[in-house]
Amino acid sequence: MDFNPVKAYAPASIGNVSLGFDLLGAALKPVDGTPLGDEVEVRQAKQFSLSIKGPFADKLPGDPKDNIVSQCYDYFHQQLGEESQTLPAAAMTLYKNLPIGSGLGSSACSVVAAFNGLNAFYGKPFTQNQLLLMMGELEGRISGSIHYDNVAPCYLGGMVLMAEHADTVAVNLPVFEHWYWVTCYSGIKVSTAEARDILPKHIPMADTLAYGRQLAVFTHALHSGNETLAAAMMQDVIAEPYRKQLLPRFDEARDFVMQNSGLAFGISGSGPTVFAVTNSKASAEKINQWLTQNYIQNEQGFSHICQLDLQGSTATKVSS
Q: Where is the GHMP kinase N-terminal domain positioned along the sequence (predicted)?
């Protein structure tokens, strides 16, 4: 078997998508072609090694053994069992292009790119569903619990609903391909653990019913192509009322978006990244400009006009 060098790309994602706490996610692709995600390169070697490059490499643990990509490599070989003994080791390079604690699925990007790259390098020994289970397990080591709302869209692409049933971890939903998703990272850090700690331990019955209704109606609206109804359901009754206090100028940003042809506005994952949905390119450009000037807090921040990345994670052969 040939073990050709492989480079895997994994796109950023919006977890929750406002109305689907832990159950809904969407992959992102900037319309100007800017890559918004992590890459992992895998090459044959005599022994395992990991090097880390990219604009956010210095934000990761100094010892590669503590990096989640190293843990992915170990877990991948554990799942291979005895077969692993006959395979060559791999030298891996992580290109860390997403900021940590941004709400864009940064850890999920590294995990997905690592597993997808390893699976392609070793001849695809695992199925898509097996890989998703492995991705959820490893991403959960960072976030504190297993949830697939970042790894699933990052891997599969598009808009994804978590099923977590038997051999179906997640399912892709229909999408409105003409929607623009303006995505703005303020530059501050909000950890998933911190964002979860701020949530109440018990959700009122009325909010629970609203959550279930919105998710059900949203799913129906996507399948029936009802854009207006789908957008109307994109309100977060579970996390946003509590988490928005962690995000400076959140309410001001929402007001601007909804006054300028926005269909929806919400927190991406745990924040601080926010997203605005519109079906107008002109509106997307106006919102993007305002968020860039008013929501970004420091030089680390950025804003992109995106659409959904329908392809998800890719793995391609590279030259030796």
A: 67-158
